[in-house]
Task: inverse folding
C-alpha cells in the first residue's frame, strides 16, 4: 500500500530514491531494531542527516510525512512562508524544504530536549531561511505546564493536558501565534499537544 502511495504522491524524478529510502528504513526497522535490538539515533536519507531519539518513532514520522504526505500542499509561490507549530525533531521541516527548497519556515517546539535535536537537524542540514523557537504556541505570553514521559524523550504524546497521565511535568515558555502573523502565510501546520483550541480562538 505504501509503495503505491510513493508512485501516486512522489514526483516521477524522485520515486526511485524514495523507494530505496523506504526499503532501507523498513529493513533496518525489522532486522537491526526488531531482531538485534539495536537503538540507532542517526539516519541518512534523501540527502539529509537526521538525529532522533527512537527509530520506530522516526520511521513512523517518515511514513506520515514523506509517504502519506500529510502536510502536502500546493503553494502559489516558489518561496512560501510556512508556520510549523509543533516541529518535534524537524521531520516536517525537512519535508517542507525538500518540497519547496526556497521556503521560509518558522518552527516552534516547547520541549527542551526535543528542541535541541530540532536545532541540530536544521543546522547540520544547512537549511536556509529556517528559524526555530523553543516556545509552546499558545494564546498568551507566559508559561504553561507541559507533560511528557521521561522514558520516551521526544514522544509524540507530549501534551499540555494533565488528564493524559504522563508522569513528568515542567513549565515551558509560551508565545501567542498572533505575534507571528505579520506576513501572509502560505501554510499553517498546527500540532501543538492540546493547545489548538485556545490558539484558534
Result:
Amino acid at each position: 500500500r505504501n509503495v503505491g502511495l510513493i508512485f501516486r504522491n512522489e514526483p516521477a524524478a524522485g520515486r526511485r530514491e524514495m523507494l530505496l529510502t523506504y526499503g532501507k528504513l523498513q529493513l533496518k526497522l525489522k532486522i537491526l531494531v526488531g531482531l538485534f535490538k539495536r537503538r540507532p539515533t542517526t539516519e541518512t536519507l534523501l540527502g539529509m542527516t537526521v538525529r532522533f531519539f527512537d527509530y520506530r518513532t522516526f520511521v513512523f514520522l517518515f511514513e506520515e510525512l514523506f509517504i502519506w504526505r500529510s502536510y502536502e500542499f500546493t503553494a502559489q509561490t516558489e518561496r512560501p512562508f510556512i508556520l510549523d507549530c509543533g516541529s518535534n525533531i524537524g521531520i516536517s521541516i525537512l519535508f517542507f524544504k525538500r518540497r519547496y527548497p526556497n521556503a521560509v519556515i518558522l518552527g516552534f517546539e516547547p520541549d527542551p530536549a526535543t528542541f535541541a535535536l530540532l536545532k541540530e537537524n536544521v543546522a547540520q542540514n544547512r537549511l536556509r531561511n529556517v528559524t526555530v523557537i523553543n516556545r509552546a504556541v499558545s494564546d498568551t505570553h507566559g508559561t504553561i505546564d507541559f507533560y511528557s514521559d521521561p522514558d520516551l524523550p521526544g514522544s509524540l504524546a507530549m501534551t499540555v493536558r494533565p488528564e493524559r497521565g504522563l508522569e513528568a511535568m515542567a513549565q515551558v515558555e509560551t508565545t501567542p501565534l498572533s505575534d507571528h502573523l505579520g506576513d501572509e502565510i502560505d501554510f499553517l501546520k498546527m500540532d501543538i499537544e492540546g493547545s489548538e483550541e485556545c490558539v484558534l480562538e
